[in-house]
Amino acid sequence: MADDALFEFLHMEIVAHVYKEQATREDIDKERVTCVSTLELMGFRVGQGLIERFTKDCPTFKEDLDIMKFLCKDLWSTIFRKQIDNLRTNHQGTYVLQDNKFALLTQFSTGKQYLEEAPKYLAFSCGLIRGALSNLGLESVVTAEVSLMPSCKFQVVIQKL
Amino acid sequence: MADDALFEFLHMEIVAHVYKEQATREDIDKERVTCVSTLELMGFRVGQGLIERFTKDCPTFKEDLDIMKFLCKDLWSTIFRKQIDNLRTNHQGTYVLQDNKFALLTQFSTGKQYLEEAPKYLAFSCGLIRGALSNLGLESVVTAEVSLMPSCKFQVVIQKL
Fold it and tell me: Where are the alpha helices (DSSP H) in chain A?
C-alpha cells in the first residue's frame, strides 16, 4: 500500500537532497563522509524518537539479547514491514542482523550492479538502529554491508562502558 | 503507534535539516523562500510517487471534484491518519481543504504562540498535494494558512491550461 511507500519516498528524497546539497559545496573530498554522517545522524534521532514511543508501555528488558530481539521483530516490522531474517551474536556484544530483502534496497536491480550506491541508502538505517539502542541504554557502533542486493547485513557492536 | 510517528519524525528531521543547512550559507536574505521551496519540491515528488502507487488499481476520475474528494479522504487518511474535515469549492477551480487537527502541527502548543513557525511545517504538505494533483492531470497552486494551531486550511487553485 501507499503506506510504506510514504516512508520509502521520503527516505529517497532525503538521500537525494543531502547528496545534492553537498555537491554544490566546495569541499568535495569530504563529501561522502559528511553525507553519510548527516544521514546517520538523522536516522539516530528518528530511532531515538520512535523507540521512545514504541516502548512506552513495554516492560523493561532483562538482557541485551532481549533488546536486540525486540528490535529485530517489533521495531523492524513497524518500519520496514518485515522482520529481520537472521540474528546472530558472538555473545560478547557483537550482533549481526541479516535482512534478505531490505525495504530500502528493493528499488534497485538485484545483483551487484549498484553495490557502490548502497552506503547512501543504508546510513539512515544504521543511525536508526544506533538511536533506538541508545535510548534503551546501549551505546553501539552500527555498520552495514551489502554483498548482493537487496540483501543486507547490519553489524552492531555494543560499546561496554 | 510508532507507525505514523515514523513519518512525523522524519518530516521534522527534514525541516530541521533544510533550515540548518541554509543557515550556514551566505545569502540569508533568500533563506526563507529557498527553504520553503526546497521542502515544497520534496513534497511534490513524494506526492507524485504516492498517488501513482495509490491509484494504480483505481478507476479514472470523471471530474475535478472527484479527484479532490479522493485526495481528502483516501490519500489524506493514508498519510495523516485522518480525513480532511471540510472541503469547500467555488466551483470555479478553487478548493479549500480544512483539517482541524493537522498531524504535522499537533506537536505544537495549541493557539497562536508559534504561528510564525507554521510555514516551515506546511511547505512539504503543500507540495504533496500539488504533486498528487499533478499526477492526476491537474496543475495547481497550493498554499496553506493557519490561524489557530493545530487547525490548518489548504487552498488549492487549479490552473486551467
Answer: 2-23, 31-54, 64-70, 76-80, 118-135
